[in-house]
Design goal:
This protein is of the alpha/beta class. The protein has one domain: Glutaredoxin, CATH 3.40.30.10. It is built from four helices and five strands, in the order E-H-E-H-E-H-E-E-H. Strands 1-3-2-4-5 form a five-stranded mixed beta sheet, with helices on both faces. Helix 2 links the parallel strand 2 and strand 3. The relative contact order is 0.22. One of its GO terms (molecular function) is protein-disulfide reductase activity.
């Protein structure tokens, strides 16, 4: 079930509570932990926009500079880090630039 706010495009995460709500309210959530200064993160942006538009997954974006404590509590040591949540639980985590097909495969496996 996707919410109007998340329909087809990445959702900027405002707080840990906001992310928890997204994870609780949606079957599959792909969380992108990124930074504006990160080159590989910028390379991932169009891919994540396509994944958001073409799959049922909600793509949530967490700026590690804005939410430093939260990123630290999630064990984020390098960016981009992508975490997949299915049915409220973390299901998979990958680090670095990823191929769109690989992301879609993970989403389909979790669906």
């Amino acid at each position: 079930m996707s919410t109007p706010e998340s329909a087809g495009k990445p959702v900027p995460v405002e707080s840990e509570d906001h992310l928890n709500e997204l994870v609780a309210d949606n079957d599959i959530v792909l969380v992108d932990f990124y930074a504006d200064w990160c080159g590989p993160c910028k390379m991932m942006e169009p891919t994540l926009e396509e994944v958001a538009a073409e799959t049922d997954a909600v793509v949530a974006k967490v700026d590690i500079d804005e939410l430093q404590e939260f990123a630290k509590s999630q064990g984020i040591r390098s960016v981009p880090t992508l975490k997949f949540f299915a049915d409220g639980e973390e299901a998979k985590s990958v680090i670095g630039v990823q191929d769109k097909a690989d992301l879609v495969d993970v989403i389909e496996q979790l669906s």
